Structures are given as structure tokens and as C-alpha cells.
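In this section we walk through a basic example: taking a raw amino acid sequence and producing a predicted 3D structure, encoded as C-alpha cells. The instruction is simple. Fold the sequence below.
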Amino acid sequence: MKYSYYPGCTLKTKAQELEKFALDSANELGIELKEQKDWQCCGAVYPMGEDEIVTKLSSVRSLAAARDRNEKLVTLCSACHHVIKRVNEDMKNKTEVRDKVNNYLQLENDYNGDGEVIHFLEMLRDDFGFKKLSEKIKTSLDGRKIGAYYGCLLLRPEKDMKFDDSENPVIIENFIDALGGIAVKYPYRTECCGGYLVTENKSITDEMTNNIIRSAAINGIQEIVTACPLCKYNLENSHEAKINNISVVYFTELLAETLNMK
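The resulting C-alpha cell sequence is shown next.
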């Protein structure tokens, strides 16, 4: 199994360990993730302006490069996945965007949304298989009560992301189960953590993350797993996480732990 790999900025700077867990685990599972040459920042936030073209170019370059290698493009960060996936949908469905981007980039072969970007979790679910993953683990999570935290970017808008049911997702719960944990659902698992508001109005982020952690604590959850570095940062720095002694981990940490790669 061979894929083009887009790391994104956070996993190359503040979260290098989380990337290492993923790459080591993939190698252990026989999955080859080939980092793209000269990848550029995706912009971190999907541009909402209909005439905003420039900030979509880096995503198209990565998508086209993977397409030319006849490989799927794999991401680890939900923000990168969100941006690149929605840009790909624009290239498929919006003629004006597609024409402007291709006129600007002058690629050897125009890009028309004919590539595919998937999250690492989708790769495990759809290509590798959670059943096969459960057979590969070396150290079970041994019944630890773990809550999945999805946040916003993996699931919405559902028509573009096509990741899972936006109101009742199960992919991370199935991932936890495959690793030997007990996935516990709780009401706030798809609510926003505040995201980038932490840099502008931390009080709002504090309120939102505290609600999430309290919801998890009430349901007997001992740790929370997420697929977004910013969500991880916001949740683990919340007041409620500290007083309830709830740890917040990245999904690659759990995977590496069960494969004895951590």
C-alpha cells in the first residue's frame, strides 16, 4: 500500500512527535507514506470567498502531484484534510475556479478534481481495514474508556467531506474498538472547541472546551482522542481537563502505543 503524504505545517513544527508516531506505525503495518516534495501550506482555513483563488493553489499542486503518481493523497491533520478536500470539490464542480486555477498554474496536465485526498483514519478504515488492524496490535488498550472527539473540520460540511455521518459519526469509535479500548459516546463529541479563537478571545474557547470535557467526565471517560492538533491543544489546556484528570491524545499516539512504536 503506497500513498503520497501531505504533512502540513503543525506536524512539521509543534507536533513532530505526532507525525513520527504515524509514520512509524504505517511502516510497521506495511503502509508506505511518501512525503511530497516541495509541499506548501494549505492555508489552514478554507477560503470562503467565491473569488478567492490564490490560497487554493497549494492544495491543487499537492492534489495534482499525487494524481500524477497515481496515488491517493493522505493527510494526518483534520485542518489540512478539510482544506484540501474542499478545494478538490471546487475543482470538480466549479468551472470558474477550475479554469482560473489551471490558467494560473500551467500544469503539464490540467487538474480537474480527478485526484483523491483521504485522512489517515479513512485509509485505515477503507483501505487497510479495522478488522485487519485489530489483528496487528501488539499491546491492547485493555478496556480503557476513551471518548472520540471529532470537532468540526472532519465532518462538516458533510456533502463535501464525505468522512462520516456528521451528526452520529463512528469512525473514531471503531478505531478505538479495534485497538482494544472501550469507545464511550458523549453529547459534545462533535461540538466546536473554539478553534483559532484561542488566539483572540480565549474566554470563549475556555467555555467551549470546558463544556466538552464536562460532558466526557459525566460519561465516565478517562481520556479523549482527537485528530486535530489545535483541538488537542485547546482541550488539554482546559480547566476542566485538569480538575477531572482527563488526558487528551492524538489518534497516532494510541496507534503507536498498541503497535509498540511509542
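Looking at the output, two observations stand out. The first helix runs from residue 16 to 28. Residues 130-258 form a domain with the Rossmann fold fold (CATH 3.40.50.1860). In the next section we compare this with other chains.
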